């Protein structure tokens, strides 16, 4: 389906590192902001990097069959309600996007609702209504998986063709941390107990049910987890498969992505399995409260920029980190060089 991804040019990274070291600042004084500036210069293709004036978030929404099996603190009806809330510009991520000049759009890929009254572009590429309960059946058919990945690719291309310099991924769907945790467990060969967290805030009984669902799903799928695409079919969902496609297209097109929470990072880990090297085009916006996200970030070699205890989803943690990226760009662009001090 895809192959190895070429990383950002080493020559650009070296040039950016040289500029960083030549700034009129003490050696290493910019810490991770300096590292971030070097990464941005190499992925944006210029030293110094251009100002980040066009940053775009795509929230990929879908429902999950496991939501009917006690793995979430909220009912599945919340998913279509939140799609409408994002469309209305009133969601948490909408407020953050407005505050930080990040455009926000939502695409319904597998929402189990007619979404009457929602603008057609939101629902035009829906793959199916909901996804299978992964401990009982495959989430998707193989054809649906391919279609969802293609829709995600098209969504990324749409933003890139529109001039996006930096892409962000967001998720929306009750129960989605359960398949996301299963994807991480499958990719890293870990048991359910190591990856399952409280998601939307389930109690101890809910956490036990969620862990059991992931364990049953992994046992049902067996060695099919050796194939990342088959893993998506068995353990993912339409919105997760689309997120994988989104991340693949961005990396192949040479456009950087700021990842969000568990769902985003689980999909990134799957995309890296499909296209080794894609991870070099991604940065991690924040550390969520889910253990699977930390394990996946470590496997990808990514250190999150923020650690605020966020578990909202929607891309909110990534949007909250955007000012750090803009600051890193400004430092590498506008700080005087030592040679200019006279």
From TrEMBL:
The keyword Plastid does not apply. Keywords: Cobalamin biosynthesis, Glycosyltransferase, Transferase. The active site is at residue 314. The lineage of its organism: Bacteria, Bacillati, Actinomycetota, Actinomycetes, Propionibacteriales. It catalyses: 5,6-dimethylbenzimidazole + nicotinate beta-D-ribonucleotide = alpha-ribazole 5'-phosphate + nicotinate + H(+). PANTHER family: NICOTINATE-NUCLEOTIDE--DIMETHYLBENZIMIDAZOLE PHOSPHORIBOSYLTRANSFERASE. CDD domains: DMB-PRT_CobT (cd02439). Belongs to the CobT family. Its EC number is 2.4.2.21. HAMAP family: CobT. GO terms for molecular function: nicotinate-nucleotide-dimethylbenzimidazole phosphoribosyltransferase activity. This is Nicotinate-nucleotide--dimethylbenzimidazole phosphoribosyltransferase. Catalyzes the synthesis of alpha-ribazole-5'-phosphate from nicotinate mononucleotide (NAMN) and 5,6-dimethylbenzimidazole (DMB). Pathway: Nucleoside biosynthesis; alpha-ribazole biosynthesis; alpha-ribazole from 5,6-dimethylbenzimidazole: step 1/2. InterPro entries: Nict_dMeBzImd_PRibTrfase, Nict_dMeBzImd_PRibTrfase_bact. It comes from the Bacteria. The keyword Transferase applies.
């Amino acid at each position: 389906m895809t192959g190895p991804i070429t990383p950002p040019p080493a020559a650009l990274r070296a040039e950016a590192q040289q500029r960083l070291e030549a700034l009129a600042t003490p050696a290493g004084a910019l810490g991770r902001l300096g590292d971030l500036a070097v990464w941005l210069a190499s992925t944006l293709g210029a030293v110094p990097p251009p100002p980040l004036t066009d940053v775009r978030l795509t929230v990929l929404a879908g429902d999950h069959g496991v939501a009917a099996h006690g793995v979430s603190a909220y009912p599945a009806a919340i998913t279509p309600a939140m799609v409408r809330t994002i469309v209305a510009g009133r969601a948490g991520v909408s407020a953050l996007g407005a505050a930080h000049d990040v455009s926000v759009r939502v695409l319904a890929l597998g929402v189990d609702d007619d979404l009457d009254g929602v603008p057609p572009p939101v629902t035009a590429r829906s793959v199916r209504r909901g996804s299978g309960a992964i401990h009982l059946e495959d989430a998707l058919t193989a054809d649906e998986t391919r279609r969802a990945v293609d829709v995600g690719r098209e969504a990324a291309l749409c933003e890139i063709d529109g001039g996006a310099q930096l892409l962000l991924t967001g998720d929306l769907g009750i129960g989605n941390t359960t398949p996301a945790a299963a994807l991480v467990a499958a990719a890293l060969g870990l048991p359910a107990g190591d990856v399952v967290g409280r998601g939307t805030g389930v109690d101890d009984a809910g956490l036990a049910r969620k862990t059991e669902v992931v364990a049953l799903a992994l046992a049902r799928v067996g060695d099919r987890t050796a194939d990342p695409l088959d893993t998506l079919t068995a353990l993912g969902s339409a919105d997760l498969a689309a997120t994988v496609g989104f991340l693949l297209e961005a990396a192949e097109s040479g456009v950087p992505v700021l990842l969000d929470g568990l769902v985003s990072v689980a999909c990134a880990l799957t995309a890296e399995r499909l296209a080794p090297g894609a991870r070099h085009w991604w940065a991690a916006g924040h550390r969520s409260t889910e253990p699977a996200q930390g394990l996946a970030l470590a496997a990808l070699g990514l250190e999150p920029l923020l650690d605020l205890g966020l578990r909202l989803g929607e891309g909110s943690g990534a949007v909250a980190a955007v000012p750090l990226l803009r600051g890193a760009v400004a430092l590498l662009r506008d700080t005087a060089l030592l040679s200019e001090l006279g």
